[in-house]
Write a structure and sequence with these properties.
Structural class of chain A: alpha/beta
Largest sheet of chain A: 6 strands, parallel
Helix content of chain A: 40-55%
Oligomer: homodimer
Distance between the termini of chain A: 74 Å
Radius of gyration of chain A: 26 Å
Strand content of chain A: 5-15%
Strand order of the largest sheet of chain A: 2-1-5-6-7-13
Number of strands of chain A: 14
CATH superfamily of the largest domain in chain A: Response regulator
Shape of chain A: elongated
Chain lengths: ~325, ~325
DNA sequence: TATGCTTCCGAAATCGTTTTCGTACCTCAA
DNA sequence: TTGAGGTACGAAAACGATTTCGGAAGCATA
């Protein structure tokens, strides 16, 4: 491995000068600096990350908290797309990505300890149990964090606008003449709360009263759960004319359930999803859904995180909302025609 | 941050002794070692990764080469499942995972340079352009590597048995009475070659001649491409009775294409996929496919990599084959009944 | 008592950087 | 000539760990 010392010898200067030249400090002569930089390139020099980190305590490494307790973290298309986009953006900006976990060299540790151990400059928090103590310890530590799709007090986050999204989606149904709209939502989380609020707002604004039996809890990204729930939902005399599913993936289950009951989409009942993952374009009938801009979410969260890292003084905690949009498919019947 | 020095002071011993006690060296007294370990735990000590790495040149960090040039690396369920499983296993064994890319702190570099910069103990090579020079430079360096689904000379790899898999799948079709079998394969890669070879072997063994027009090239994980290809394929007078798709995801497109031609599955034509991703269980009709054990692939590749890292002398280069199995759905019609 | 062997521990060098502070030299005005 | 001020560079001390090597103590044996 070629070190700073090799370069210093090759150039006949001290290691201090080499370091300064390579890092663009002012107090080194123009000619010397040029020579050093050229020699470094010629000798194929790359700094030793460990030494640099040891001395400066910055690692150019961002951690990602992306735990798969439900076994669908990484394999959930929504999250893997975000991760993919975040990875690309981070690399472009010169940061590496390391997964944070609860192991340090084989020994049990907390997320925070792990992040410290690896000296992560910052951590992206996504797809975890946001309310758990372990995660909160990390978020409220001195390590910069950005959370995705969840808001912590005084911390930055990037969110798709769930209130607005569900509001738009509901309004879309209403504009197509639906007034008996059911909402199968996911587990109780802040995301769920927001979607519910957007849903209710759209209903209220249009003078629609929603019977309790139209609101059912299922689970995100769970085919079976949605299939069963939809059956219970549709087993009442005053059936809804439209159903909102927790997400696109649930549509697969919902569709099965409806089919087993002999109900056709959209002739007998209209449905919409949420996420706009690629998959939906492929299912038939093509699902009408609310597209979340995963690429944008990934990019914005990394940029914000790096902003906090590099400008700790001026960077402010903020909630960055990423707009989505209705993606029309063929699962909503227009009752007004 | 609590360092080894703090512990040494608290215990009234030297830092050398602390280090030795914590690393289980023999030449430290029983009582002293116990005291040191207890104190370390009490003071919530964790070693400084950078310092450790600087001194020992081992990082407990494994790199993952997982490039997304085709924009489907991470979001391809097959790979994201492998990554997920590899991540879990690596963490269990005390290793962290970092993505390898072509950027070092903002400066352009090669994969190899990046891996050296981060002092990766080893690298998992998956889902890249295996034949590119940059990847080969890395694989044939002194850094331990394990490749997934691709074999390099004298290097270890973990593969699903593609020859056997496609052979089994073809035999399954033949056993169900099919003799006019078409194969839409993916881009030309070593995986494709193996699958073709398994396919041909099964045909030969059963005295089946395959017309050239039954072999068509499409692309992996590409809905549109498969949809178009299947239309061309079925636009000939002597139509096949069964089609093998490049993978499960392609089934979505293939199904569309067939539907648009008014062909029903499996009444008019039988189809099979490859991979066995979760999605297939949800599509209807449920796809008959060859399940690849992604969890096992992830685990085995990490274990092998760590074996090479920790036992460089005794570990031998080998190809580890992971068995899959036929996963029966409802897309193959039994012509013999 | 002298000798040799263990056992236990510490001093100090080292890994490859960064960074402070001092110094030598030069320039220029008074 | 002197002194102030600026520029260019280097010596050396860190950062937090590991590891070599030597030495002190304790004990048994001759």
């Amino acid at each position: 491995m070629v070190t700073i010392k090799d370069i210093s010898e090759a150039c006949g200067v001290s290691t201090a000068t080499v370091s300064k030249a390579l890092n663009g400090y002012g107090d080194v002569g123009r000619a010397t600096a040029d020579l050093i930089r050229e020699t470094a390139k010629k000798m194929n020099y790359y700094p030793n990350a460990a030494a640099k980190q040891l001395k400066t305590s910055v690692s150019h490494n961002i951690g990602v908290l992306f735990i798969d307790e439900t076994c669908c973290g990484l394999t959930h298309e929504f999250f893997s797309e975000i991760l993919n986009s975040a990875k690309t953006e981070a690399e472009r900006l010169g940061y590496d990505i390391t997964f944070i976990c609860k192991n340090i060299a084989g020994r049990e540790a907390s997320f925070l300890e792990h992040a410290r151990y690896r000296k992560c400059d910052g951590v992206l928090v996504a797809s975890v149990d946001f309310k758990s103590q372990a995660v909160q310890d990390l978020v409220y530590s001195d390590i910069p964090t950005v959370s995705i799709d969840y808001v912590y007090n005084d911390r930055s986050s990037v969110l798709s606008d769930n209130v607005e999204g569900e509001y738009e989606l509901t309004k879309y149904l209403i504009e197509h003449g639906h007034r008996r709209i059911a909402f199968i939502h996911g587990e109780s989380t802040s995301v769920t709360d927001k979607r519910l609020s957007g849903f209710y707002r759209a209903c209220e604004e249009n003078g629609i009263e929603v019977p309790d039996s139209y609101i059912m809890e299922s689970r995100y990204h769970d085919i079976e759960s949605c299939r069963d729930t939809v059956k219970i939902l549709m087993d009442q005399k005053e059936r809804p004319t439209a159903i909102i599913f927790p997400d696109d993936y649930s549509y697969i289950g919902g569709r099965q359930g409806l089919e087993e009951m002999g109900l056709r989409i959209p002739e007998d009942v209209s449905v919409v999803g949420y996420d706009g993952i690629r998959l939906t374009r492929a299912l038939s009938p093509k699902l009408t859904t609310y597209y979340q801009d995963t690429v944008e979410i990934g990019i914005r969260s990394v940029r914000k995180l790096i902003d906090i890292i590099e400008n700790p003084k001026t960077s402010i905690a903020e909630q960055i909302k990423v707009q989505g949009r209705i993606q029309e498919g063929k699962t909503v019947k227009d009752l007004l025609q």
